[in-house]
Amino acid sequence: MIRSVAGPASVVAAAALLAGCSSDDGQVEADHTHAPGQGHTSLAVGDGTRVSEVGYSLAGLQVREQPDGTGELRFRIDDFDGEPVTDYVEELTKELHLYVVNDDLTVFRHLHPTRDDDGTWTATFDVPDAGGYRVVTEFIAVDEGGNGDHVVLGRPLALPPGDPGDTAAEDRAVSVTVSEAPTTGANGELRLVVRDAAGEPVSLGTYLGTWAHVTGFHRETGAMVHLHPLGAPEVTEDGSELTFHAEIPDPGDYRLFVQTRVDGFLHTVPVELTVAPSA
Asked: What whole-number distance in Å separates Cα of residue 208 and Cα of residue 110?
């Protein structure tokens, strides 16, 4: 249950699948409305830098090494009574999204764990280097009133090494560039252009029900932002352009991990972004 509202620094960037609310100054039009049916789900609370938010906690986090050398993460989401949450609303086809990112923002994993009946989540993972990482969970839990509490939790942990060299290096088949950077505030707008290796537009497919997933992290604070396009890409001779409503509270430098499907293959492309304060 959402018992309080976090301050602006804790609000995760979100995007609704709508069109016709953009402008030319890094802002979408004020007072735009999101898609119907969202009135019973709270705004996202948390930015992945805290283990507990509004009564929910990331609990029982364990790392186990599998016989094949891969790792396994196990954890629970506990409610304000300390009981495991077992009732969730699917968001983008999944009950919970799990992100694993290292402190240098060179390794990124977007995972979809499975849940046991007792509320324990399990995910297999592999990372190239041992060291400091952060585990971030994003979910919508159903409260006692039947409404959805959208929450983002995270905590640091040390992980063992895995497959060497598997980092978020530049993708040789797909490139993503920023054509318009957002400013801070509720009405920011981000535009990204996707091209192939020859600099030509690409035909984008969907991934988890949307045209792209953008997960970004503030380089100083580690705060996470999570964005999805407002609609289908606009294809021109310059590339395939996606527009995002970017509600980013804090200015600064971010590293984005853009996940998009091209020719049936999922690509994860790191992109640097600087968010300026709004005027």
From this structure: 12
- Cβ neighbors of 3 (< 8 A, separation 6 or more) are 54, 55, 80
DSSP string, 121-144: EEEEE--SS-EEEEEEEEEEEE-T
Q: CB count, 10 Å around CB of 220?
A: 10
- 3-state SS, residue 8: helix
As annotated, the residues of the chain forming the CATH 2.60.40.1930 domain(s) are: 8-12+36-159
CB-based burial label for 198 (10 Å; 0-12, 13-18, 19+): exposed
| Candidates 3.90.190.20, 1.20.1250.20, 2.60.40.1930, 1.20.950.20; CATH matching 8-12+36-159 | 2.60.40.1930
Secondary structure percentages of the chain, helix, strand, coil, to 5: 0, 50, 45
Could you read off the pLDDT of 182-222 as tens digits, one per residue? 999 999 999 999 999 999 999 999 999 999 999 999 999 99
- In this predicted model, what pLDDT tens digit does every residue of 132-176 receive, in sequence order? 999 999 999 998 888 899 999 999 998 876 655 555 556 789 999
pTM, full prediction: 0.83
